[in-house]
Amino acid sequence: MSTDTPEQEQPLRTVSGIGTNHAEEMNELLAQRLTSVIDMELTLKHVHWNVVGPNFIAVHEMLDTFVAEVRDIVDQIAERIRTLGGVPTGLPGALVKNRTWDDYSLGQASTQEHLRALDVVYDGIILDHRRAIAHGANLDPVSEGMLVDQTATLEMQQWFVRSFLKGTQPDEDAHRFGSADRAPTDQEAAAAPASVSEETGDHYREMAVTGANAKGEGSI
Ligand SMILES: [Fe+2]
Fold first, then answer.
1. Does 11 map to a domain?
2. 147 C-alpha to center of ligand 1: Å?
3. Does the reported pTM lie above 0.70?
4. Residue 164 is part of a domain; what is its CATH number?
5. Which terminus of the chain faces fewer neighbouring Cβ atoms within 10 Å, N or C?
6. How many A from CA of 52 to the centre of ligand 1?
7. How far out from the chain centre does Cα 195 lie?
């Protein structure tokens, strides 16, 4: 009979150069972000199915591209938790238990109604990602960098959503955006320009011109 400790009882190890306490605290932040992005992935697919009306096919196809990107973000966060020695939870029961918000409220609805609702969803998830960046910078700069890149992707997606909406020019509803968020911290302001990769920029520029992303997905 082997004297080895069963795998599930072996202590998990974190990365070099970071204390166990910091790794555990970072993983608590990442677990909250994991819950949010799993919910986001499911919500985007729900809207993909239930949107109707003008620009249907453009919105329908765009949302599937967003689902794929958010799915990648889900995977990155879960695997970062593992890398730091934690155990990510992606099961439906845990998602419902850990989240602090209600389900997205719309079923079948127009493109304008869904995109306005999604704009609010993006406000929340981006703000929480930015808060995790600010907090995580003192714990693990590698996780911080991952969250910065993800925030750039989410903010690009929100820009696409807002581009479909009437009354979203800055001079038309500055009051709405002006009161919806806080000013960025100096740290966030410094991090933001470096967070947009060349690849991401090419991806969205191509989508803007052709309606498809750089891999040819989402063609309309
Ligand atoms: Fe589909």
1. no
2. 28
3. yes
4. 1.20.1260.10
5. N
6. 13
7. 14
> What's the 108 CA to ligand 1 centre distance in angstroms?
15
**Residue predicted with more confidence, 188 or 31:** 31
Single out the residue of 44, 26, 28 nearest to residue 154, CA to CA.
44
| Model confidence at 210: pLDDT above 50 | no
Number of domains in the chain: 1
Q: Give the distance (Å) from ligand 1 centre to CA of residue 57.
A: 11
Domain that holds residue 156: 16-210
Query: Is 60 within the bounds of a domain?
Result: yes
* Structural domain contains residue 2: no
Residue 204 lies in a domain: yes
Percent of the chain with pLDDT over 90: 67
Mean pLDDT of the chain: 81
- Give residue 28's pLDDT band: very low, low, confident or very high (50, 70, 90): very high
CB 199 within 8 A of CB 149: no
For residue 133, the CA-to-ligand 1 centroid distance in Å is 32
User: What is the whole-number distance in angstroms between the Cα of residue 106 and the centre of ligand 1?
Assistant: 18
Residue 214 CA to ligand 1 center (angstroms) comes to 19
Mean pLDDT of 153-159: 98
